[in-house]
């Protein structure tokens, strides 16, 4: 029996908490065979982003094609795509070979947990107009949803719900608007899809170690979608979304007290992607 295969197209994080590294850890932890195409390079750690550079668009396209030509991908996660040229070649390939990507989860990464910008302004239009309609699910946080809509960030749950529905109006098949930027002891994510609006609410975990949570959630949704056999057109199951959120919450709780940095009490550490796995 062969494992399900997932592909991540995203940026690299040398500190291992976000991006390609977080995606591959998540795929492995959840029992999915992970493949990857690097769309951008960053110089970052738990303290912030020092520099970022896109990968040559032709090389991004060739990486993706090499995977699709050889391996039956069940689900794809799209993350940091750097600039309009990179986002454009990804959109081109999606339009040409949509079935080869399997279920697609688009995490429109624009700003790191540290607040550093990761997506150039001219790429926003490509993400909104070309990639958003091709995805089965998009997973913006509150600031990212505001950028995509050209509006101010949602200040409360009713506004988050309205913005999730507005993003569906732009052509998204389904939207999971993450509520981590809201204040309060509870965290609510808003799912807007063909069945209506569903709220996922959990208690907030008090920790600074939230680096890469968005990457981890979107790759976990892709992994569970692959495992459940979710298909293009039928959409991503709510069960896959719920299981992915559960995995992320466990990973945050397990890594909440970690002090990996040489400067404890500063920056944002990673979550424990291998929560529940045996360690030496």
Automatic annotation (TrEMBL):
Entry GO terms, CC: cytosol
InterPro entries hit by this protein: HMP/HMP-P_kinase_dom, PM/HMP-P_kinase-1, Ribokinase-like
Signal peptide location: none
Keyword flag Nucleotide-binding: yes
The reaction(s) this protein catalyses: 4-amino-2-methyl-5-(phosphooxymethyl)pyrimidine + ATP = 4-amino-2-methyl-5-(diphosphooxymethyl)pyrimidine + ADP; 4-amino-5-hydroxymethyl-2-methylpyrimidine + ATP = 4-amino-2-methyl-5-(phosphooxymethyl)pyrimidine + ADP + H(+)
GO BP terms: thiamine biosynthetic process; thiamine diphosphate biosynthetic process
One Pfam assignment: Phos_pyr_kin
CDD domains: HMPP_kinase
Pathway: Cofactor biosynthesis; thiamine diphosphate biosynthesis; 4-amino-2-methyl-5-diphosphomethylpyrimidine from 5-amino-1-(5-phospho-D-ribosyl)imidazole: step 3/3
Keywords: ATP-binding, Kinase, Nucleotide-binding, Thiamine biosynthesis, Transferase
Residue ranges of domain Pyridoxamine kinase/Phosphomethylpyrimidine kinase in the record: 13-271
GO MF term list: ATP binding; hydroxymethylpyrimidine kinase activity; phosphomethylpyrimidine kinase activity
KW Transferase (keyword) present: yes
Function: Catalyzes the phosphorylation of hydroxymethylpyrimidine phosphate (HMP-P) to HMP-PP, and of HMP to HMP-P.
Entries under PANTHER family matching the protein: HYDROXYMETHYLPYRIMIDINE_PHOSPHOMETHYLPYRIMIDINE KINASE THI20-RELATED, PHOSPHOMETHYLPYRIMIDINE KINASE
Identification of the protein by name: Hydroxymethylpyrimidine/phosphomethylpyrimidine kinase
Species of provenance: Tessaracoccus bendigoensis DSM 12906
């Amino acid at each position: 029996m062969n494992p399900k295969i997932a592909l991540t197209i995203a940026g690299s994080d040398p500190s291992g908490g976000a991006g390609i590294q977080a995606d591959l850890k998540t795929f492995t932890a959840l029992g999915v065979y992970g493949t990857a195409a690097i769309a951008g390079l960053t110089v970052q750690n738990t303290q912030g982003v020092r520099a970022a550079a896109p990968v040559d668009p032709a090389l991004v396209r060739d990486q993706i094609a090499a995977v699709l030509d050889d391996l039956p991908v069940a689900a794809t996660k799209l993350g940091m795509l750097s600039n309009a040229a990179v986002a454009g070649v990804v959109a081109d390939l999606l339009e040409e070979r949509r079935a080869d990507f399997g279920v697609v989860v688009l995490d429109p990464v624009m700003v790191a947990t540290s607040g550093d910008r990761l997506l150039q302004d001219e790429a926003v239009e490509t993400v909104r107009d070309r990639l958003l309609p091709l995805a089965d699910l998009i997973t913006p946080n509150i600031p990212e949803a505001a950028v995509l809509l050209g509006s101010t960030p949602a200040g409360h749950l009713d506004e988050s719900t309205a913005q999730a529905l507005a993003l569906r109006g732009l052509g998204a098949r389904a939207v999971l608007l993450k509520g981590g930027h809201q204040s309060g002891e509870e965290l609510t994510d808003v799912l807007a899809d063909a069945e209506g609006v569903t709220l996922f609410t959990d208690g907030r975990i008090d920790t600074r170690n939230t680096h890469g949570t968005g990457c981890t959630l979107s790759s976990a949704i892709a992994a569970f979608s692959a495992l459940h056999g979710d298909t293009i057109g039928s959409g991503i199951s709510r069960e896959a979304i719920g299981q992915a959120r559960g995995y992320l919450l466990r990973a945050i709780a397990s890594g909440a007290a970690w002090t990996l940095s040489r400067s404890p009490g500063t920056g944002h550490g990673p979550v424990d992607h291998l929560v529940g796995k045996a360690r030496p």
